[in-house]
TrEMBL record, chain B:
Described purpose of this protein according to its UniProt entry: Part of the binding-protein-dependent transport system for phosphate; probably responsible for the translocation of the substrate across the membrane.
Official protein name in the record: Phosphate transport system permease protein PstA
Ranges of residues in domain ABC transmembrane type-1: 87-304
Keyword Transmembrane: yes
Organism lineage: Bacteria, Bacillati, Actinomycetota, Actinomycetes, Micrococcales
Compartments, as annotated in UniProt: Cell membrane
Family: Belongs to the binding-protein-dependent transport system permease family. CysTW subfamily.
Organism in which the protein naturally occurs: Myceligenerans indicum
UniProtKB/TrEMBL annotation, chain C:
Family, per entry: Belongs to the binding-protein-dependent transport system permease family. CysTW subfamily.
Protein name: Phosphate transport system permease protein
InterPro entries referenced in this protein's UniProt entry, alphabetically: MetI-like, MetI-like_sf, Phosphate_PstC, Phosphate_Transport_Permease
Keyword annotations: Cell membrane, Membrane, Phosphate transport, Transmembrane, Transmembrane helix, Transport
Native organism taxonomy: Bacteria, Bacillati, Actinomycetota, Actinomycetes, Micrococcales
Main location class: membrane
Matching NCBIfam families: phosphate_pstC
Statement: the UniProt record of this protein carries the keyword Cell membrane: yes
Transmembrane segments: 39-61, 87-120, 132-156, 186-205, 243-266, 299-322
Length: 356, 316, 336
């Protein structure tokens, strides 16, 4: 009875959704369109890009539905390694235990892992009358550690000649949740100025007693709510705030997608993993690059038991790791497109996804 | 409030109070009237502010399209699409939750008030209170664990959300219904028994009829309590951009989850000159969904009150 | 047909109770559907116990690995976990923060909620009363995500000057000492938002109870020459006492378990600080679970669930306390 009710109700589908009777229509590239439902999830960093990827993919395949639960990287990895999600997104790569669990699901050596979303992390501030500042890594570390407490501190003034700095208290706003953004930011500080930033690199913020907020929009809103605040956030979200050009060598580099993508391109791949695992050891001090980047990975199996799932994963992730897909994410989510060379390495592995 | 006195003291106190000087008593009375009016005004301030904020931010997004389209194939920053799928999801999931909770809750309240004695009744009364303290996210985790046992990993269906909401809703229903049933004067029950009406009919026809207004208020409060839940639904039902009316298959979107996710997405990074792109569309969507959710609950309340007016017997 | 029992609360309305309560030993006075109905009702009660037992079992089973793990193991897999701390010492500040926020909220909300309930039941013009009650109910209808957004975007900026004023002029008072949060994301703001959230619950239940005050009692008080307030004090409040306590407990339940609003407003921290205006000092259990759950895996999830168990125990303790208070005051019930 419930089923009958559902069928009746299905007739009330919104106008922008096909009712499912247009099976087998040709897509623009001439192939048969895919159908069915594919549900993955994980890092919320990829959520906006996912929205764009899904919209294009579903437009091309009107009978296919792709869902992405933004439940967090940890949740994504856990659901992937338990077999609940056929694909997942995560700001951190699988560790050894998780890789073993994933191989138990996917099969030995057939776990696919690659960077899908690269985004610069901006250091942003809200200070009346100031839009841009230069800061050296050491000063950034001291500000976020709480050693520098005033905006007109000598160290800040030294990097910014001619800028009129007010005598305002600095309020640090950090992420209250465990996040890839925090991990990448602290990893940057720890690599570049280890003598100042002497904390362990973790997804949770190490300094206690500061202001914090949950999620990217949370810290951005909190920074906007107070005067003299400083925070770090995905660069696509900091439009209303001033941003900092970060000292790299002798230059100050403002954030940009290209300078961020360059980091991944020039960093070496982690060795000792399977051919299908593209994980990078990020270098934080390369000249000309914007060193504070967030790299978010996707993971999938090389083989699936179910033919339909294999086809959907292959089709959808194939779209993600294409030039168009990356450009789309860059346009719609402000990420840094992954270089053609890297796409050229990863795309064939996705193309090789099979069932059986 | 004088609550810690014995009967004799109270009588004494009342005597003293009534024989005290008239002027002072009048002043106290007047002062308390002001205080009580002030309390009410104090509650209206946040209400007005809240509604004003939601209305002011949400009304701009309201349109037929917003209410009748889903978010399928809508790009970030694109001012198209709508929340139809989330409205339907919220109604179905909350409806199923109420379908589970109201019978269980009201029957339990009946058990406690009409039948309850002995250790089972004491345990139920006590643990219902404890149940109100289950954090909503724990209810979500519990339901995921439960359904993983039944359906295997990866199941995310509407009914899971309904069950999670029921765990949160049942104690609220029991607690308020119990309070309302207790208030039914025993004379009514006795009169009914005296006429030879069996107990179950007495409960249905006399006790429930008499307390229907209070029960409805309680149920509406309970629905309102869970209709805005976010965390358990995100875990147990997942998210989707597409329309789905079958709570036994596939994910569903709900209004609070939608509002929260849109808020979390933040500003869309629009390219310069892209006129089809609205930077703060996600926030607008969030407020629009919030406004719709509040409107739905208001509507439910009005319907509930009308039902009350038609069916409730006049006590006084 | 005989009546089997009076209501269990001891608040049975006046009547020749002794003569009516007459039960046959075997209970076979219930025939046919009456018996089935009793079973159905009992079954519903038992079902609730079963569900709760299942939840408790789930919490214990999933929390157990964290409870039995050594501090070193926990520090290893839970990112926030400091070295050499027992699980109890780790959860302690969270318990403190949860209770602090909920108690503050209840302190703010209970008197106001009773005031509103009295206003609607006895003070407001008859014709308006129902509509006004409906207005307050609307507060309960607003989802907590909206409370979070509103609390953070609208209320915090309004309260910030108040907190700054308190921080400057009343810092001798321990609760208002310390550096006032520049963004208003302090536990004081959270308490105000929680108070607004529990207000409709307290109001709705108290109102219904106040409205049920026997008219005879009220009229008797007025006939003795009592003013309206005296009538309320002698007839309405004593009658509604158990209802008000019930209402407050319902409110406390909501305040203890509230997740999203706290999560979106509070700057969390893990201390036993009493400085209400400072940021980064407090965190509640529910918000902590929601905040850390997405990125947690392995033992970290177990730790989160163990803190959930702690919240469960708190609720248990709070309810035992409430029951004890109600029971202690039972001997004098104003209604009878």
């Amino acid at each position: 009875m419930v089923g009958a009710l559902a069928l009746t109700l299905a007739a009330c589908a919104p106008a922008n959704e096909s009712t499912g009777d247009a099976t087998g229509d040709e897509t623009t590239d001439g192939g048969m369109s895919l159908s069915g439902e594919l549900s993955g999830g994980g890092a919320s960093t990829q959520e906006v890009a996912m929205e764009a990827w899904r919209a294009t993919f579903q437009s091309e395949n009107p009978d296919a539905t792709v869902n992405y639960d933004p439940i967090g990287s940890g949740g994504g990895r856990e659901n992937f390694t338990s077999g609940a999600f056929p694909f997942a997104g995560s700001d951190a790569a699988l560790d050894d235990d998780e890789m073993a669990a994933a191989e138990a699901i996917c099969g030995e050596g057939s776990v696919l892992e690659y960077p899908a979303y690269i985004s610069p992390i901006a250091v942003a501030f809200n200070l009346e009358g100031v839009d841009e500042l230069n800061l050296s890594p050491e000063t950034i570390a001291k500000v976020f550690k709480g050693d520098i407490t005033k905006w007109n501190d000598k160290a800040i003034a030294a990097d910014n000649e001619g800028v009129d700095l007010p005598d305002t208290d600095i309020t640090v706003v950090h992420r209250s949740d465990d996040s890839g953004t925090t991990e990448n930011f602290t990893s940057y500080l720890n690599t570049v100025v280890p003598d100042v930033w002497d904390f362990e690199v973790e997804g949770v913020w190490p300094v206690e007693g500061q202001e914090s907020a949950q999620g990217t929009s949370g810290v951005v809103n909190a920074a906007e709510a107070g005067d003299g605040t400083i925070t770090y956030a995905d660069a696509s979200q900091v439009a209303g705030l001033g941003t900092i050009a970060v000292g790299v060598g002798d230059d100050f580099v403002p954030y940009s997608a290209e300078a961020a993508a360059a980091v991944v391109e020039q960093s070496p791949r982690v060795e000792g993993t399977a051919d299908t695992v593209f994980v990078y050891d990020l270098q934080r001090d390369l000249a000309g690059t914007y060193p504070i980047v967030l790299v978010s990975y996707q993971m999938a199996c090389a083989t699936y038991e179910d033919e339909a799932t294999a086809a959907l994963v292959k089709g959808f992730l194939g779209h993600v790791m294409s030039e168009e897909g990356q450009q789309e994410a860059s346009d719609q989510a402000g990420s840094a497109p992954i270089s053609s060379a890297l796409i050229g390495e990863i795309a064939p592995e996705i193309e090789a996804i099979t069932a059986g | 409030m004088n609550t810690t006195i014995s009967a004799a003291e109270a009588m004494q106190q009342t005597k003293e109070m009534l024989t005290a000087s008239g002027q002072r008593r009048k002043n106290v009375d007047r002062m308390m009237t002001v205080v009580i009016w002030f309390c009410f005004a104090l509650a209206l301030a946040p209400l007005v502010s809240l509604l004003w904020t939601v209305l002011g931010n949400g009304i701009g997004r309201m349109s037929i399209d917003f209410l009748t389209l889903s978010m399928r194939n809508v790009f970030p920053g694109d001012p198209g699409g709508g929340i139809y799928h989330a409205i339907v999801g919220t109604l179905i999931i909350t409806g199923f939750a109420a379908l589970i909770s109201v019978p269980v809750g009201v029957l339990t309240a009946i058990y406690l008030v009409e039948y309850g004695r002995g250790p089972l009744a004491r345990a139920v009364t006590f643990f219902v209170d404890v149940m109100t303290g289950i954090p909503s996210i724990v209810a979500g985790l519990f339901v995921v664990a439960l359904f993983t046992l039944i359906l295997g990993p990866g199941a995310r269906i509407g009914v899971m959300g309904a069950v999670a909401l029921s765990v949160l809703m049942i104690p609220v229903v029991v607690r308020s219904s119990e309070e309302m049933l207790k208030l039914v004067p025993n004379e009514l029950r006795e009169a009914s028994y005296a006429l030879g009406v069996p107990k179950w009919l007495t409960i249905l026809r006399v006790v429930l009829r008499t307390s229907v207004a209070g029960l409805t208020t309680g149920v509406l409060l309970a629905v309102a309590r869970v209709i805005g839940e976010t965390a358990p639904l995100l875990i147990a039902v997942g998210v989707t951009d597409s329309f789905n009316v079958n709570p036994f298959d596939g994910r569903m979107m709900t209004l609070p989850v939608f509002a929260y996710r849109e808020y979390s997405q933040g500003n869309a990074p629009c390219r310069e000159g892209d006129l089809g792109c609205v930077t703060d569309i996600a926030f607008q969507n969030a407020w629009g969904a919030a406004l719709t959710l509040i409107a739905i609950v208001m509507l439910l309340n009005i319907v509930g009150r009308l039902v009350n007016r038609w069916f409730a017997p006049k006590l006084r | 047909m005989t009546i089997t029992d009076s209501p269990p609360s001891g608040e049975a309305p006046p009547g020749p109770r002794g003569r009516v309560v007459r039960r046959r030993a075997s209970g076979d006075t219930e025939r046919g559907f009456s018996r089935i109905f009793r079973w159905i009702a009992t079954g519903a009660g038992a079902l609730i116990l079963a569900v709760l037992a299942a939840v408790a079992l789930f919490l214990i089973a999933r929390g157990w690995p964290a409870i039995t793990a050594t501090p070193a193991e926990l520090a290893d897999s839970v990112p926030r976990y400091p070295d050499d701390t027992s699980l109890v010492a780790y959860v302690g500040p969270l318990v403190f923060g949860t209770l602090l926020a909920a108690v503050l909220a209840l302190l703010l909300a209970t008197p106001v909620g009773m005031g509103i309930a009295l206003f609607i039941s006895h003070y407001a013009p008859r014709r308006l009363a129902q509509g006004l009650g409906y207005l307050v109910d609307l507060l309960a209808a607003i989802p907590s995500v909206i409370y979070g957004l509103w609390g953070f975007l609208v209320l915090a900026p309004v309260l910030k000057p108040v907190w700054f004023w308190l921080g400057e002029n009343a810092s001798w008072f321990p609760l208002f000492a310390g550096k006032v949060s520049a963004t208003g994301k302090s536990i004081a703001t959270v308490a105000v938002v929680l108070a607004v959230m529990v207000l409709p619950i307290i109001t709705a239940v108290s109102r219904e109870v106040f409205l049920q005050t026997p008219k005879l009692h009220e009229e008797a008080a007025l006939a003795l020459g009592a003013t309206r307030w005296e009538m309320v004090r002698t007839a309405v409040l004593p009658f509604g006492r158990s209802g008000v306590i019930s209402a407050a407990m319902l409110g406390l339940g909501r305040a203890l378990g509230e997740t999203m609003a706290v999560l979106m407003i509070l700057s969390p921290g893990f201390t036993y600080s009493l400085h209400l205006l400072e940021a980064g000092n407090h965190q509640t259990i529910a918000a902590y679970i929601a905040n850390d759950f997405p990125e947690a895996s392995g033992l970290a999830v177990n730790t989160l669930i163990a803190t959930g168990l702690a919240l469960f125990v708190i609720t248990l303790a709070v309810n035992m306390l409430a029951r004890w208070i109600v029971a202690r005051r039972k001997e004098f019930s104003g209604a009878n």
